[in-house]
Amino acid sequence: MKKHLVKVSNLPYYLAAMATVAVYSDKASAADNIGTVAGNVRDQLGNVGKLMVAGGFVGGLVMLASGLMKLKQAADTQGNQVKYSEGMWRVAVGAGLVAIPAFSGLLTQSFGLGTTASITQGGGATF
User: Fold this and answer.
1) How far is CA 38 from CA 30, 41, 57, 106, in A?
2) Is the pTM of this model over 0.90?
3) Would you call 125 helix, strand, or coil by DSSP?
């Protein structure tokens, strides 16, 4: 009896799923759908990479600021309580993280990794 109640309560979901399949089944062929999905995945992976580079830049700014604050604390205590090395390694790591976007842009322009290839109807690839 409980199974029948579950089936009846899930009926709207079954109907919605059937309607969705009916609407999208005749929109495009399977090859077009696979190509569209592959293109969307490629674009999204590119966006994830851009997000990681931007996150590294912001993290670098935070590391630079904290390193400068540690250097100020070390200067105030004359290196007795806070060591200068704590601030220096944070500044170095922050500078490296801030430089990642410039370095990745340089690699993209040098090796052509940012360009996308498209296949023309004549069979040749254009870059």
Assistant:
1) 12, 5, 29, 27
2) no
3) strand
Residue with tokens 């109907």: 15
Q: Hey, where are the domains in the chain?
A: 47-113
CA distances from 47 to 2, 42, 73, 100, 127 (A): 47, 9, 39, 16, 20
Pick the closest to residue 93 from 124, 51, 120, 62 (CA basis): 62
Rounded to the nearest angstrom, the gap between the alpha carbon of residue 81 and the centroid of all alpha carbons in its chain is 40
Q: pLDDT tens, 40-75? A: 888 888 888 888 889 999 999 999 999 999 999 999
**If you ran DSSP here, which 8-state letter would residue 10 be given?**
T
What is the rounded distance in angstroms from the CA atom of residue 13 to the CA atom of residue 67?
55
Distance CA 7, CA 10 (A): 5
